Amino acid sequence: MEQKFATVLYWTWSCRPGMLSAEEVxxxxxxxxxxxxxxxxxxxxxxxxxxxxxxxxxxxxISLLDLGRLDVDDGFFIRGATAAVQSxxxxxxxxxxxxxxxxxxxxxxxxxxxxxxxxxxxxQEEWPEPAWEAFPRNVYNDEHHLGNALAAAGYxxxxxxxxxxxxxxxDHAGGLEKFAGSDVPIYAHxxxxxxxxxxxxxxxxxxxxxxxxxxxQLNWQPLxxxxxxxxxxxxxxxxxxxxxxxxTMQVETQNSGHFMLNSDLYHVRDVFEQxxxxxxxxxxxxxxxxxxxxxxxxxxxxxxxxVYGHDASVLEELRQQAKTFD
Length: 326
Ligand SMILES: [Zn+2]
Hints:
The protein is an alpha/beta fold. It contains ten helices and eleven strands.
């Protein structure tokens, strides 16, 4: 045991010359006392002979799911988009046809993970009438049903090992019904789970959040921190503004770079690309701008491909490029 301890100590020292802290020495000492010693001890650094080999980074595959189309006034997405101004006192109130977007990520260790679940199959019956009036799902063919979209990507609902929820609005959390009573973990930010109840109980935001979606038959797994590497190479970040507990997720692939799944931090590409401000659907502009600046910096850092909560043109372009990005 002493020899193992000395060897591990040498690896670390030769990678990072200098004194080890008492805490680091303690971690190694305890690791050496464990049966089935793990020399890397899961503390975020590899021995130097692994450096550059990237053996620890698990690379995922990602398939985007097309769950139908909504027709929505641009003012919901972009602040002032349909405002009457001096030079245009009678703007046309054309609606934009947007998509309902989800994604399935095949992680080499964690298995297939679903990012968001779209609208319920019978959304027109479940949604309050004003919600359907503002955001009607006017295109919903067989291929847009969650189960069928997953099947087209090569998965069954029963294959899904975890679900990550960007937020819990009615057009994102509808498909969660399919996981009720199962032990599939449903990851969401603590703030979002709480906001769901608060919005319904106070009726401040009832409609966007539905009482019937407060479902304790789901295996809720709250996340608490600003940034969590949920699985190797899959990082979720708390980016409030559209809702208090919105999560985005970064996915690293082998050959296609990084993807940023934005949920409704951005509904459409214009807002991110032109630095616009979120429209009537934005709940907290101050926090939204903070989240936006963070995402701008991250997208630049990783040259990441952006996937927006509802942008149909981006969804269609990416799905034309590849059914699955590996
Ligand atoms: Zn949405």
